[in-house]
Design brief:
Oligomer: single chain
Number of helices: 11
Largest sheet: 7 strands, parallel
Structural class: alpha/beta
Order of helices and strands: EHEHEHEHEHHEHEHEHHEHE
Number of strands: 10
Number of domains: 2
CATH class of the largest domain: Alpha Beta
Shape: globular
Strand content: 15-25%
CATH superfamily of the largest domain: Glycogen Phosphorylase B
């Protein structure tokens, strides 16, 4: 089977999708599927393209960057002749492209909203999303053969949006690293680490994590000295500065972005 993956960006510009979509595509390829990846080109594409190896990846120059529009996208997906299209994310030209491909070929596509139908997400840029929904997004969602939710909670948000398509609940997978060296280093330092890895955004509620950490650390100072809370991720909208004001002492450290770590 030939499976196409369509995402608005194949680079770190896509945030968490850069990791999750790439991992899923490689997992599908490992099951003996012929995987082809399509995305819109951006400033980081050339740098991050190697992370997709050995998959076949094609990027296209956008004519309208903010929306991710490229007139080359649909003809190329049609030419490649994929059997099914796995589409990641909402509200951009990839939605329109998938719908056009489906109507031209009669073949199915699966939509991965990645939390973009959650109430919190829908409130962001609400007016623009209502216009997009009326113009193309709702039709695109309704014609999907299946909607993939990352959790039961997201499945509930999809139903609350009014969609009645089949839903499959499949959490993001992970690749387990070799921890032998890191474990040896941690034991020698006699200090354990609690790691947060992801974007720094109010949606993630990291501020409450740090407040709980401070309270626990202050109430158990004897054992608390053996622990550190490491915050690794890219800042959005200056949220990191707010978190640093909440953090107390040297038990909370900020590591910055860790793409590919």
């Amino acid at each position: 089977m030939k499976v196409g993956f369509l995402v608005s960006s194949i680079s770190r510009e896509a945030g968490g999708l850069f990791q999750s979509v790439r991992g899923l595509a490689k997992a599908v390829a490992s099951a003996n599927a012929n995987v082809r990846v399509f995305g819109i080109r951006d400033e980081q594409s050339a740098v991050d393209l190697q992370e997709w190896q050995p998959l076949s990846v094609q990027t296209f120059r956008p004519r309208l960057r903010a929306w991710g529009y490229s007139n080359q996208l649909v003809p190329r997906i049609v030419d490649v002749n994929v059997d099914v299209l796995s589409v990641h994310g909402l509200w951009k030209y990839c939605s329109v492209a998938s719908l056009r491909w489906h109507r031209r070929t009669g073949r199915p596509y699966v939509v991965h909203p990645h939390g973009m139908l959650d109430p919190w997400a829908l409130r962001n840029a609400r007016s623009k999303k209502r216009i997009a929904a009326a113009l193309y997004e709702n039709q695109y969602l309704r014609e999907a053969v299946c909607l993939r939710a990352l959790s039961e909670g997201e499945a509930g948000s999809i139903r609350s949006y009014g969609l009645r398509n089949p839903i499959c609940v499949i959490p993001n997978g992970i690749d387990l690293p070799d921890l032998s060296e890191s474990n040896a280093r941690t034991q020698s330092e006699n200090r354990k680490t609690l790691l947060y890895l992801g974007r720094l955004h109010p949606k993630k509620n990291i501020s409450n994590l740090i407040r709980a950490w401070n309270e626990t650390f202050n109430s158990q100072r004897g054992s608390g000295n053996h622990w550190v809370l490491a915050i690794a991720g890219w800042d959005q909208g200056g949220y990191e500065s707010e978190l640093k004001r909440i953090a107390a002492g040297d038990s909370v450290v900020f590591l910055g972005s860790r793409f590919g770590a």
